[in-house]
Design goal:
The complex is a heterodimer of chains A (about 170) and B (about 180).
Chain A lengths: L3 H26 L8 E14 L5 E12 L8 E12 L4 E13 L6 E7 L4 E2 L9 E12 L2 E2 L1 E11 L6
Chain B lengths: L1 H11 L3 H29 L5 E3 L14 E5 L10 E4 L8 E11 L5 E6 L23 E9 L2 H24 L10
Antiparallel strand pairs in B: 1-2, 2-6, 3-4, 3-6, 4-5
Helix pairs in contact in B: 2-3
Classes of the chains: A alpha+beta (about 170), B alpha+beta (about 180).
Chain lengths: ~170, ~180
């Protein structure tokens, strides 16, 4: 009962259990962080707005995104995945979410930024409903921890709209 | 030919009851692991409640070898969620992020486009020929948590060693019973 093998086994089992417990506590500590991110987005320019050859509307636009996400970082944060999505409604679809831009923020130092970008992913509708369309721009963030539960939230900014005619 | 006789004798001396007990114990251990796995499947609502990340397409968030915990609910699929999906005709599920979602008003059916964080292009190339959207039936679960991958290998080794120890204890406790006759 006291051979090396039994002792090593007991030690290993205990170590794994303790490790799992520590992971759970690390994840739980994320609940107590105070988070107040802020963001402002402006549409600088509508570069292109046309109907594709097979009938779907497509928009290309340039956005100015100013955000402060420093409060999302805790000691258990590996990275924050942030993306801006255009959200709108059409007669056929109750919800359309199209991601326009995303980025990975690896550390707190990079979490406060202001950039001007054109949309990274094509903004294509299922149909031709975009003329004069009012839409929301939503900034979503997903906090990926070093270990444990991921959490996500968003800020919805409304009041954006597309021009009434193709350009 | 004496050694044949000796071999046969030594085989006869193995107590059948002991061997059967060991076999049943081993079966119980394997079955209890299976029961735990199936119960996890019920609780999380997905066919594979735990998956291992195989490729680097979601780095630096998920690295190869990381364990992901999945959960599936009836909640609608929304952009930004990390989903695990199966493409028709492929065996291996893929873990990527939904970047576009179009949900039908009347039926609630949804068209989803996914992309790996570390990839330059979206997943259309991974879908079946002619398929440009994923639907709810392709999606097996959402990733809700992850474990640092080193834990996995330690757990496997620990689990195996623990069960070998249990088996050894079983055999050493049983006294050797005389063949045939009573006490």
């Amino acid at each position: 009962m006291h051979s090396f093998g039994y002792r090593a086994n007991a030690l290993l089992t205990f170590a794994v259990t303790a490790l799992a417990f520590i992971c759970a506590i690390a994840s739980f500590s994320d609940k107590f962080s105070n988070q107040n991110p802020s963001v402002e987005i402006q549409i600088l320019n509508i570069n292109r707005f046309k109907k594709q050859s097979h009938g779907n509307d497509e928009v290309s636009l340039t956005l100015d995104i100013a955000a402060d996400l420093e409060s999302l970082f805790t000691w258990n944060t590996k990275q924050v995945f942030v993306f801006v999505a255009a959200e709108y409604e059409t007669p056929k679809n109750s919800l359309n979410q199209v991601s326009l831009w995303d980025a990975i923020i690896p550390a707190k130092e990079h979490a406060k930024f202001r950039i001007q970008v054109s949309n990274k992913y094509r903004f294509i509708d299922q149909g031709h409903n975009l003329r004069g369309k009012d839409f929301n721009l939503t900034l979503h963030w997903h906090v990926m921890p070093k270990t444990g539960k991921m959490f996500a939230d968003k800020i919805v900014m409304s009041g954006y709209s597309l021009p009434d005619a193709y350009r | 030919m004496g050694w044949i006789g000796e071999t046969v004798d030594s085989i006869k001396s193995i107590k059948i009851r002991q061997v059967l007990t060991q076999a049943v114990t081993l079966g119980m251990i394997v079955t209890s692991a299976l029961i735990i796995w199936k119960a996890l499947m019920c609780v999380t609502g997905t066919e594979s409640p735990v998956v291992v990340v195989l490729s680097g397409s979601m780095e630096p968030g998920f690295k190869r070898g990381d364990i992901l915990f999945l959960h599936m609910t009836e909640e609608p699929i929304r952009a930004g969620e990390i989903v695990v999906f199966n493409v028709d005709g492929r065996d291996i599920p893929i873990v990527h992020r939904a970047i576009k979602v179009h949900e039908r008003g009347n039926t609630g059916e949804v068209d989803v486009l996914t992309k790996g964080d570390n990839n330059d292009v979206d997943d259309i190339g991974l879908y079946a020929d002619g398929q440009i959207w994923l639907h709810r039936q392709h999606i097996m679960g959402r990733a809700v948590g992850k474990a640092y991958h080193q834990v996995y290998t330690y757990r496997c080794i620990g689990f195996a060693r623990y069960n070998i120890q249990r088996l050894r204890q079983q055999t050493e406790k049983k006294p050797v019973v005389g063949c045939g006759s009573g006490s």
